[in-house]
Design a protein that fits this description.
362 residues, mainly beta, three-stranded antiparallel beta sheet, 4 helices, 51% strand, elongated
Length: 362
């Protein structure tokens, strides 16, 4: 868990050719240590660490869908490349381990109970001890130790994106985001999204008489999934069955991060020559699942010898993160012939800022 979840959220960026710099062996061993504490504790600890990341990725994916309050005309189109930065509240940079009600994990003697979330300090978190009860001695014994993972060291997450928008009939515009499955070593990612913008000016006679003024309703959905292969092996000091010793028995282990992001906006804009100012109300909803899938070895105790043995557990981690927010969005677009530059900001619980460029007939 030391580096897996930290770099895993950074991997949760829809970019073709995702590259991760941290050696996988550290990530794999750390995830294995947490799982050894049991499914209940592993889920609690991973959720507390990753929750701000799950929210930030989703709210970032909901940014940048539009750059005006006007839907493009029939046959008009543009291609945009942009990035949305999500800013995380200060209270989401750490969590209190003592409030998680962990069963088998406790801070080591003298260690703090305050640990960084994914957006916390980039130093290792407090040292933790995993305990198990030996039924022969009826005493608690130490199974392993680990540090909670460090954060990335800053409180923002950049989410880059590419998008194609096309004008349809009845003052309606459709936008598409798509990145085919991309693999790099043990990592993979894919993304798709669909948005629709519809002009409301045509239905409001008073507004339609105002030159250069437009108002639209927008709705969009983005689905992003990324995965990392794991290679967590049994404790060599514990008893393993013949089957557990077979090559490939613990293959197909994965850490999977899936984000579903919905957004809806009411947007108005005013165009003066080559400059368009726009603003409106934005609703953003995020649902992120972090799953550790596959068969994993856990060291356990039993009465019959050998006393220390390997127990298998399937799909040990299933964490869900959900969040909704309403924000005020405002932005500017400069359009010169076929080229445009734009930037916007959204004031909300998780504020965002977007900057991008576009090319096309819009």
């Amino acid at each position: 868990m030391k580096h897996a979840l930290r770099k895993f959220s950074l991997m949760a960026l829809p970019v073709v050719g995702i590259l991760l710099a941290t050696p996988a062996v550290h990530a794999q061993q750390a995830v294995g240590n947490v799982i050894k504490a049991g499914q209940e504790d592993a889920n609690k600890l991973i959720q507390a660490y990753i929750e701000p990341g799950g929210k930030a990725v989703g709210h970032g994916l909901n940014g940048g869908w539009f750059n005006s309050g006007k839907a493009m005309g029939l046959g008009r189109f543009d291609v945009r490349i942009f990035a949305t930065g999500v800013f995380v509240p200060k209270d989401q940079t750490s969590f209190d381990i003592s409030k998680l009600d962990l069963k088998n994990i406790r801070p080591a003697n003298g260690e703090s109970t305050i640990a960084p979330t994914i957006f916390g300090s980039d130093d290792d978190g407090p040292g933790m001890v995993v305990y198990g009860r030996n039924p022969v001695t009826n005493r608690e014994e130490e199974l392993t130790r680990f540090n909670t993972p460090p954060g990335i060291g800053f409180k923002n997450l950049p989410v880059p994106m590419a998008q194609v928008s096309v004008g349809l009939i009845k003052d309606t515009e459709i936008a598409v985001r798509f990145i085919p499955e991309t693999k790099h070593e043990e990592y993979s990612g894919k993304l798709w999204g669909l948005g629709v913008k519809h002009g409301l000016k045509q239905w409001i006679p008073v507004v339609s008489a105002i030159p250069g003024f437009d108002i639209t309703a927008f709705g969009g959905y983005t689905h992003f999934e990324t995965a990392a292969d794991l290679d967590i092996n049994p404790d060599a000091a514990a008893y393993r069955t013949t089957q557990q010793q077979q090559a490939g028995y613990y293959d197909n282990q994965q850490l999977v991060f899936t984000t579903k992001a919905w957004t809806a906006s009411l947007v108005a804009s005013k165009t003066l020559s080559v400059i368009t100012a726009y603003g409106g109300l934005r609703y953003s909803h995020v649902s992120t699942d972090v799953n550790v899938n596959g068969r994993f070895p856990i060291t356990s105790f039993r009465v019959t010898p050998p006393n220390r043995y390997i127990e298998d557990v399937e799909n040990p981690v299933m964490v869900k993160v959900e969040d909704s927010q309403i924000g005020l969005t405002a932005g500017l677009r400069l359009k010169l012939a076929f080229f445009s530059i734009y930037g916007e900001g959204t004031l909300a619980k998780y504020p965002t800022a977007t900057a991008g460029i576009g090319l096309g007939f819009n």
